[in-house]
């Protein structure tokens, strides 16, 4: 009887072949992850997904020729919302970071990151549904102080939604949040979906951004 661990499938999308291959080898070296396939841009990714090759996570380069990371993330959110996107880039400007997170990415990691951070980011995106490093969080806070598209700042939140929102900013998984709130996981999902609707937000990272911007959570 096999005691092998079920691997989490990751797709690597980057137009630079050497980097893409190196990332694939690195991810394959992580105990709980394996590379399902590689793609050089959004168009090739679409083709592979439409052949029913559906990974749990997509490591998605932001800047690619043709269908770039922004367009790809938007398409993925509409067509495969169950896939977790971890954005990857050489660029750390706050507008790029926030735009990717608003398009549904669960996290953002720099191409200059150490292998250990990539491993942590993949685990966090899978287990907690988001990943933000201290550096990226600082960039987000800076960007939120500038003129940008706003979520609905005047939405009225219930006490339970506010409690859930504060816990969302922690390292807890949704299941752990449910335990803290003494409710079932389905009820927590109801709180999350209600906030998505009220605040016009697509992801947990977006909820964290909203909480930081409106003083609900402080770093």
Question: How is this structure best described in words?
Answer:
The protein is of the alpha/beta class and 219 residues long. It folds into two domains: 8-144, Response regulator (Rossmann fold, 3-Layer(aba) Sandwich), CATH 3.40.50; 159-213, Winged helix-like DNA-binding domain superfamily/Winged helix DNA-binding domain (Arc Repressor Mutant, subunit A). 49% of the residues lie in helices and 13% in strands. The protein contains ten helices and five strands. It has helices at residues 17-29, 42-49, 69-79, 94-102, 115-127, 134-144, 159-168, 174-181, 185-199, 204-213; strands spanning 8-13, 33-39, 57-61, 84-89, 107-110. The protein has a five-stranded parallel β-sheet with strand order 2-1-3-4-5, sandwiched between helices. α4 (94-102) crosses α6 (134-144), α7 crosses α9 and α8 crosses α9.
Can you give keywords for this protein?
10 helices; globular; 2 domains; 13% strand; alpha/beta; 219 residues; Arc Repressor Mutant, subunit A
The proportion of residues forming helix, as a percent range, comes to 40-55%
**N-C termini distance:** 48 Å
Mean pLDDT: 88
Number of helical elements: 10
CATH topology of the largest domain: Rossmann fold
Sheet-strand content, in percent, reads 5-15%
CATH class category of the largest domain: Alpha Beta
> What is the structural class?
alpha/beta
CATH superfamily of the largest domain: Response regulator
Order of helix and strand elements from N to C terminus: EHEHEHEHEHHHHHH
Question: Main sheet, how many strands, which sense, barrel?
Answer: 5 strands, parallel
């Amino acid at each position: 009887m096999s005691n092998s661990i079920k691997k989490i499938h990751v797709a690597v999308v980057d137009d630079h072949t050497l980097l893409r291959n190196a990332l694939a080898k690195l991810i394959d070296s992580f105990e709980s992850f394996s590379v399902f396939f590689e793609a050089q841009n959004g168009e090739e990714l679409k083709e592979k997904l439409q052949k029913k090759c559906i990974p749990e996570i997509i490591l998605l380069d932001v800047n690619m020729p043709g269908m770039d990371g922004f367009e790809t993330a938007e398409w993925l959110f509409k067509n495969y919302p169950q896939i977790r996107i971890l954005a990857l880039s050489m660029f750390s400007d706050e507008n790029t970071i926030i735009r990717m997170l608003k398009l549904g990415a669960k996290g953002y990691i720099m191409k200059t990151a150490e292998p250990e951070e990539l491993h942590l980011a993949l685990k966090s995106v899978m287990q907690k549904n988001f990943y933000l490093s201290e550096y990226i969080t600082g960039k987000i806070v800076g960007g939120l102080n500038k003129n940008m598209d706003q979520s609905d700042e005047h939405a009225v939140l219930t006490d339970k939604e506010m409690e859930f929102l504060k816990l969302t900013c922690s390292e807890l998984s949704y299941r752990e949040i449910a335990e803290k709130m003494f409710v079932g996981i389905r009820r927590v999902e109801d709180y999350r979906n209600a906030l998505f609707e009220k605040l016009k937000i697509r992801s947990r990272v977006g909820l964290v951004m909203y909480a930081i911007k409106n003083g609900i959570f402080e770093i």
